[in-house]
Amino acid sequence: MSNHFPVDRALFDDVMVPNYAPSSVIPVRGQGSRVWDQQDREFIDFAGGIAVNCLGHCHPALVSALKEQGEKIWHLSNVMTNEPALRLAKKLVDRTFAEKVYFANSGAESNEAALKLARRWALDVHGEDKTQIIAFKQGFHGRTFFTVTVGGQAAYSDGFGPKPGDVVHAEYNNLESVKALISDKTCAIVMEPLQGEGGIVSPTKEFVEGVRELCDQHNALLVFDEVQTGVGRTGELYAYMGLGVTPDIMTTAKALGGGFPIGAMLTTTEIAKHLKIGTHGSTYGGNPLACAVGEAAFDVVSDPEVLAGVSKKAQLYIDGLNAINEKYKVFSEIRGKGLLIGAVLTQDYQGKAKDFLNAAMAEGVMTLVAGANIVRFAPSLVIPDEDIAEGMARFEKAVAKLAQA
């Protein structure tokens, strides 16, 4: 089969549904934290595929796991189990509070499973009145109709007809707003242990501990969405470990596969028993190819040296951004935890986060946004220090241009 047509940005508009507006840059290869586009221009990757590429591009451990498993077996239905799925599940259970694992292919699917489990647990244990789910404004949990309704941004869930019911939203870091909503009819509180899409907002100690206590008082489950914060991103293997608060259900995806689609929902044996045979499933979930790559990624990231390196690298980002800000006064705050960092724009630059992203791209560094007022960084957890320095120098050039304009 030959391609007698140009594969360029214009082709996207011809053949793709218009729900994305991708950059004109089309990367074709990557190595570590650098990628090259069709014109062989080099970019430093500070975006990590939105906190997914935890080991950068083409990490030898991942490439080797993919090739090795690719020569063995790719897919089996869940009528059978497989070795990579069992090995990865065992490692997840050994390294977390959880005792049981359910595999899916994405964060949204993992959250869907968590929400269905919470509802089913409540029905079985407490009866049919206990259905309320409390989530948070500006929260993000995926794009399926259930998860997007639980997510706290109406712009994403409006306009598709009647929404799943009995979902309410409190304010993050406002314990009183949770108290005002919670009752014995609440089956679960769903939260990110650091709001990602909502602006890189860390929870206060009082808030996260208070939410756990409220769940205990009202026999509700605490569900932590660790899709973005998990697998080393905050410098802990999972963010809950640094908060001293243990959830009842936790979801993980993004970095779990280091770029290969995989997600998981983790919980206790007691809660897990409510997803009995036939209550939930996934055709691809737990397939050997994804689990083999996931196991390789998990092995590398859970190395204590890699986890310790996250905080050191985070400090390089914070120092670099502060130095840029001393010159150009564009940020009001640098916040986040580990290598999930948000640079909040000042009043003068409100609504211009995308301009920073575009200017950075033009200088050869890939960044992200978290809303219209925050530039987000979620690089590889093993990005070399020299790539941080080079990327920061390029980012400074972009900031300088915007500041002059």
From TrEMBL:
Pfam families: Aminotran_3 (PF00202). Its cofactor is pyridoxal 5'-phosphate. GO terms for molecular function: identical protein binding; N2-acetyl-L-ornithine:2-oxoglutarate 5-aminotransferase activity; pyridoxal phosphate binding. It is an enzyme of class 2 (transferase). N(2)-acetyl-L-ornithine binds at R143, S282. InterPro entries: Ac/SucOrn_transaminase_bac, AcOrn/SuccOrn_fam, Aminotrans_3, Aminotrans_3_PPA_site, Class-III_PLP-dep_AT, PyrdxlP-dep_Trfase, PyrdxlP-dep_Trfase_major, PyrdxlP-dep_Trfase_small. The keyword Ribonucleoprotein does not apply. It comes from the Bacteria. Keywords: Amino-acid biosynthesis, Aminotransferase, Arginine biosynthesis, Cytoplasm, Pyridoxal phosphate, Transferase. The keyword Amino-acid biosynthesis applies. HAMAP family: ArgD_aminotrans_3. This is Acetylornithine aminotransferase. It comes from Thalassomonas actiniarum. The lineage of its organism: Bacteria, Pseudomonadati, Pseudomonadota, Gammaproteobacteria, Alteromonadales.
